[in-house]
Write a structure and sequence with these properties.
The protein is an alpha+beta fold. The strands form seven sheets. The protein has an eight-stranded mixed sheet with strand order 5-4-7-2-1-10-13-12. Helix 16 (about 630-645) packs antiparallel against helix 17 (about 650-665), helix 19 (about 690-705) runs parallel beside helix 21 and helix 25 (about 795-805) runs parallel beside helix 27. It is globular, with a radius of gyration of 28 Å. The mean pLDDT is about 95.
Length: about 850
C-alpha cells in the first residue's frame, strides 16, 4: 500500500490540468494457463495508449500503474527510461504538450486478492477463470491510466486469450485472428471498465422495448458462471428480474439504457456483492444457490441485480466527481434496489427487508466513532475504500426514502430525469442534484441537505402519551434526542400509529397521523381524543431514519403480545427497535432472546425471521452476561429444535430453523442429532440435508471437536468443488486445538499464499465463541502484527485481517485497555487502519455495556 495512495488534492490538481480523449488497452492473458512462470508473481502483458490534452503545455503530471515491471514508456513519440519515470505506482510525465499520446508496455500481476485482474483455478476441473474488479482504484493494476472518477474517457479493449476461452468486456466483442476486440465504450470512469475471460458457461436472452419516439430499443442479455456451477444456474430467473428492472427504470427515468448490451457474470472469490460495470456487471457467485435457500435469498439477489442496474444511470451515466459524493451513486442504488423490487418484481415486501436488515447496518455504522455525514470528507483512496459502508449505502438510502416523503415521489423522479439529461456522461457534486430537486419540488433543499446529508449520527424518537380522565389520549407527543457527539435534531416526516388488540387478540392499528417532527418535542395534535393505545409506534410505515423507542405501556404490550402485531412491516419495525435497545444496553440480551423464543415461531416474513436468528446469535455471543451464556445457549438450542420439529415439512421456515439450530448447538445431544442427520440415522420430516446444509451441520461439529480432519477430508471428497474447499478450510480452522489456531494464524498473518476467499474462510473459522480461552494468546499477537500487515498486504486483505482477527471474543476490560494502548502508541498509523481499530474498540465497549445490563449491573 505505500506509494499507492492518491489524495483528493492531487486528483483535483490533475483534473484541472488534464482531459482525456481516449484509451486503447491491449491485454495478453495467455499466461494465465499452464505452469507457473517461476520466481515472482504470475504476470500478463498490458499495453496502453492514452490520448489526452494538457491545458498548460510544459507542465508535469503523472499516470497511475501498479505493476511488477514496465518494459517501455513512450510520451509523444519520445522513449522514456522506465527505471527513471516509474516508481512502482506512478509514471512521471514531464514537459507535456497541448495534445499528448502516452504508450505504456508493462508486465502486470494477476491477483489472488480480488483486486485488479483476479485469477482463479477451479479445484474441481483445473480450469482457469479471470475477471477484473477495480473499485475504487484498482484498474491501475491492469493498465496504465489516470485513476480518478472525473477523468472519464471512451475505452477500446482488445484481449489475447487461450483459444478455447471466451472474453467479455464493457462493449460488444468479437474474435478475429486470435484477438478479441471490443466496441468503444461511451465516456466512463476507469473503475467501471471490465474484462472477464475464461471457459465460462454463458446463457443469452434479449430485451426489447418500443420507446416513446417509436424507435425500438433492443438490449442483448447474457449471464455467465463457472462451468462447475452451471447445473445450479437458474439464468431464467436472473433474466426475469433483469427485464422487469429494465422496464421499471425505463418507465421512471425517461432515459434509455445507454450502454448497449447487458451481461451479468457470477464470478468466484469476489470481495463485493456486485459491481456495476456498464454492459458487464459482475456478481459474487454465491448468488447461484447450490442448495435449497429461502425466498429471502432470491429477494436479496433480485435487490442486488436492481441495485447494480440503477447504477447504469446513477454512477455510470452520471458519476460523482470525487469519492466525497460516493452517496450520489450508492445511496441512490440502494434505495432503487428496494423501490424497484417492490414496483417491478414478485418481492412486494422488499421495504420490510430494507427496514429490518439494511437499516440495521446503517444504525450500527452511524453510532461508531468513525461515523460521518452521508456526504463524507474523503481525503484519499484509503478513506474511499473504507467509505463503502452502512452510512453511504443504507443511511443514504434511508435519507432518500425520507426525501421522497418530503418532496413527493413525482417531484423526486422528475428531478432524477432532469439530472440524467443535464449531466449525461459527466461528473457531478452534491449541489447539482439539489438544484434539480429544488426545481421540481419547490422545496428548500439546502436546509434538508444540511440536516440529512451533511451531519452525522442517528436520532431517537420516543412517544409520550398523556391520557384524560376518560381514558382517551389527552396529548401525544414525539420526543427527539441525539447523541452528545452528534447533537443535530433533524426534521423528520413520520407516521405515528396507535395499536390495540381486537376481540380476537390481534394487535392492529386503529389510528394514524403523519406529522413533521422538528426539535426536541412535537405534539401530534391529530391523535388527541383517540382511544387509549396499547402500543404507540413512532415511524410507522418506516418513512424516516431514526431509532424508535417505546413508552412503558408499549414495551409491556410487546413483551406479551409482539406476535399478535398483524402488519408485517409494523412487526419488523418493532423487532428492529427492540434490537437497537439491546445494543444500546436498554434491554437485557436475555430478554431479547426470550422474545425471540416466544414469538419468532409466528413470524411470517422469512427475511425477518432470518434476521432475528442473526441478531439473537449476536446477543448470545456479545451482549449476554458471561455467566448466562451457557444457559442462554441451551435455551436457544432447545427452542430452535422445537421450532424446527414444529415447522411445516419442507418449508423455508423449517430450513431457517435448521440453520439456526446448528449455529447454537453445543450440547452433546444437539451435536449427536446433527451427526445423525448427516449420517442418515436421524430424520426430520421434510428436511432435505443437501450439500450446503451438510456443511452447515459440520461447522459446529468441527468447532466442538466432534468432526476431525479425516471427517472434513471425506466431506471435501464428497464435494470437491471451490465452494466445498472454502467450507472445509473454515471448518479446519474452527477446530479446538492450539496447533490448529497457530497454523490458521500463520496462514493468514504471516503468509500471503492464500487467496482472498480462503483468507476469509480461515478467519471465519479461527474465532469461535466456544474457544475464548484458546484465543487468549492472540490479543498481544494481533496488536503486534496489524501495522505490518497493513503496510505489506493489499488493502482488502488488510481490512479482512484487522476486522476479522480483532480479539472481540476476549471481551474484557483488559482487551479494551490493550486496544487503547495500541491507539495511543500508534497515533501516526495510517488513518484508515486506526479507523478500523477504533470501530472494533467501539463494538467491544458496547458489548461490555450490554453485558453489564444483562447481568443486572
Amino acid at each position: 500500500m505505500p506509494g499507492e495512495n492518491l489524495s483528493r488534492d492531487e486528483a483535483r490538481e490533475r483534473a484541472a490540468l488534464l482531459s482525456v480523449d481516449g484509451y486503447e488497452v491491449s491485454l495478453d492473458v495467455r499466461s494465465a494457463v499452464g505452469d507457473a512462470q517461476g520466481e515472482g508473481p504470475r504476470t500478463f502483458r498490458s499495453v496502453t495508449t492514452i490520448r489526452f490534452r494538457c491545458n498548460e503545455p510544459g507542465a508535469s503530471s503523472f499516470a497511475d500503474l501498479v505493476a511488477p515491471s514496465v518494459t517501455a514508456v513512450s510520451l509523444n513519440g519520445r522513449d522514456l527510461d522506465p527505471s527513471e519515470v516509474f516508481d512502482g505506482s506512478r509514471i512521471a510525465l514531464e514537459d507535456l504538450a497541448a495534445d499528448n499520446e502516452l504508450v505504456v508496455d508493462a508486465q502486470c500481476a494477476y491477483s489472488r486478492t480480488g483486486e485488479g485482474l483476479h485469477r482463479f483455478v477451479d479445484p474441481e476441473d483445473g480450469e482457469v477463470y479471470l475477471y477484473t474488479q477495480y473499485e475504487p482504484a484498482d484498474s491501475r493494476r491492469v493498465f496504465a491510466n489516470f485513476e480518478q472518477p472525473d477523468l472519464k474517457a471512451p475505452f477500446r479493449f482488445e484481449v489475447r486469450a487461450p483459444e478455447e476461452w471466451t472474453v467479455w468486456s464493457n462493449g460488444a466483442g468479437e474474435r478475429a485472428d486470435g484477438v478479441w476486440r471490443f466496441a468503444e465504450t461511451k465516456p466512463i470512469s476507469t473503475y467501471i471498465t471490465c474484462v472477464v475471460a475464461g471457459p465460462y458457461h454463458y446463457v443469452t436472452d434479449s430485451y426489447e422495448r418500443v420507446l416513446e419516439d417509436g424507435t425500438r430499443l433492443e438490449i442483448p442479455l447474457g449471464a455467465l458462471c463457472r462451468k462447475g456451477l452451471a447445473p445450479h444456474f437458474d439464468a431464467d430467473d436472473v433474466f426475469l428480474i433483469t427485464k422487469q428492472g429494465l422496464d421499471f427504470f425505463h418507465d421512471h427515468f425517461d432515459y434509455p439504457y445507454p450502454f448497449g448490451k447487458y451481461d451479468q457474470a457470477f464470478v468466484p472469490e469476489y470481495n463485493l456483492g456486485a459491481m456495476e460495470n456498464p454492459g458487464m456487471v459482475t456478481f459474487r457467485e454465491e448468488y447461484i444457490f447450490r442448495g435449497k435457500v429461502t425466498r429471502a435469498s432470491y429477494e436479496g439477489r433480485a435487490n442486488t441485480i436492481l441495485h447494480e442496474m440503477a447504477h447504469m444511470w446513477f454512477g455510470d451515466l452520471v458519476t460523482m466527481e470525487w469519492w466525497d459524493d460516493l452517496w450520489l451513486k450508492e445511496s441512490f442504488a440502494d434505495f432503487m434496489g428496494a423501490f424497484a423490487n417492490v414496483g417491478a418484481t414478485r418481492f412486494k415486501d422488499a421495504w420490510i427487508t430494507f427496514a429490518n436488515r439494511r437499516k440495521a447496518w446503517a444504525y450500527r455504522a452511524d453510532q461508531l466513532p468513525s461515523t460521518h455525514p452521508i456526504t463524507a470528507d474523503i481525503r484519499d483512496l484509503e478513506d474511499a475504500k473504507l467509505n463503502f459502508d452502512g452510512i453511504t449505502y443504507a443511511k443514504g438510502a434511508s435519507a432518500l426514502k425520507q426525501l421522497v416523503a418530503y418532496v413527493g415521489q413525482d417531484a423526486f423522479l422528475e428531478g432524477a430525469r432532469r439530472y440524467f439529461k443535464r449531466h449525461a456522461y459527466g461528473n457531478t457534486r452534491l449541489g447539482d442534484l439539489l438544484s434539480v430537486l429544488e426545481e421540481t419540488s419547490g422545496r428548500d433543499m439546502a436546509a434538508w441537505s444540511r440536516s440529512w446529508l451533511q451531519t452525522a449520527g442517528v436520532n431517537s424518537l420516543t412517544p409520550q402519551v398523556l391520557l384524560s380522565a376518560t381514558g382517551t389520549v389527552d396529548e401525544l407527543a414525539v420526543v427527539q434526542e441525539a447523541a452528545e457527539s452528534h447533537p443535530e435534531l433533524r426534521p423528520h416526516r413520520v407516521a405515528v400509529g396507535l395499536y390495540r388488540r381486537t376481540a380476537e387478540g390481534a394487535l392492529e392499528r386503529y389510528a394514524r397521523a403523519e406529522v413533521d417532527v422538528e426539535g426536541p418535542r412535537t405534539v401530534v395534535a391529530e391523535l388527541a381524543g383517540a382511544e387509549a393505545p396499547e402500543l404507540v409506534l413512532v415511524n410507522d410505515d418506516d418513512l424516516t431514519y431514526c431509532k424508535t423507542r417505546f413508552d412503558d405501556t408499549s414495551l409491556a404490550t410487546l413483551r406479551e403480545h409482539l406476535g399478535a402485531v398483524t402488519d408485517p412491516l409494523a412487526r419488523a419495525l418493532c423487532w428492529s427497535a427492540l434490537w437497537n435497545m439491546t445494543r444500546d444496553a436498554l434491554l437485557p440480551a436475555r430478554d431479547f432472546a426470550a422474545l425471540v423464543l416466544r414469538f419468532a415461531g409466528r413470524e411470517s416474513d422469512i427475511g425477518v425471521l432470518q434476521m432475528l436468528h442473526a441478531w439473537t446469535g449476536s446477543a448470545l455471543v456479545h451482549y449476554a452476561a458471561p455467566e448466562w451464556r451457557e444457559t442462554g445457549g441451551r435455551l436457544l438450542a432447545e427452542g430452535a429444535l422445537r421450532e424446527l420439529r414444529d415447522a411445516a415439512p419442507g418449508s423455508e421456515h423449517q430450513l431457517a430453523w435448521a440453520r439456526f439450530f446448528a449455529s447454537v448447538a453445543a450440547g452433546e445431544a444437539d451435536l449427536a442429532l446433527l451427526r445423525g442427520l448427516l449420517e442418515g440415522t436421524e430424520k426430520i420430516d421434510g428436511l432435505d440435508v443437501d450439500q450446503e446444509l451438510r456443511w452447515t451441520f459440520l461447522a459446529p461439529l468441527a468447532a466442538h471437536g466432534a468432526a476431525d480432519e479425516g471427517v472434513l477430508a471425506a466431506e471435501l471428497a464428497r464435494d470437491d468443488t471451490a465452494s466445498g474447499k472454502r467450507h472445509q478450510v473454515r471448518c479446519l480452522a474452527s477446530r479446538p486445538s492450539e496447533a490448529v489456531k497457530a497454523q490458521a494464524w500463520a496462514q493468514v498473518v504471516e503468509s500471503d499464499a492464500l487467496s482472498n476467499a480462503l483468507v476469509e474462510a480461515t478467519i471465519a473459522g479461527f474465532a469461535q465463541p466456544s474457544q475464548r480461552e484458546l484465543l487468549a494468546p492472540y490479543t498481544e499477537k494481533y496488536f503486534a502484527a496489524i501495522e505490518r500487515v497493513w503496510a505489506e498486504r493489499s488493502i482488502q486483505i488488510g481490512m479482512d485481517v484487522v476486522r476479522g482477527l480483532f480479539p472481540s471474543l476476549r471481551d474484557s476490560r483488559d482487551t479494551l485497555d490493550a486496544t487503547d494502548a495500541w491507539l495511543s502508541a500508534h497515533e501516526g498509523a495510517a488513518p484508515a487502519l486506526r479507523r478500523l481499530v477504533l470501530e472494533a474498540r467501539d463494538d467491544l465497549a458496547r458489548a461490555l455495556r450490554a453485558q453489564a445490563c444483562d447481568g443486572g449491573a
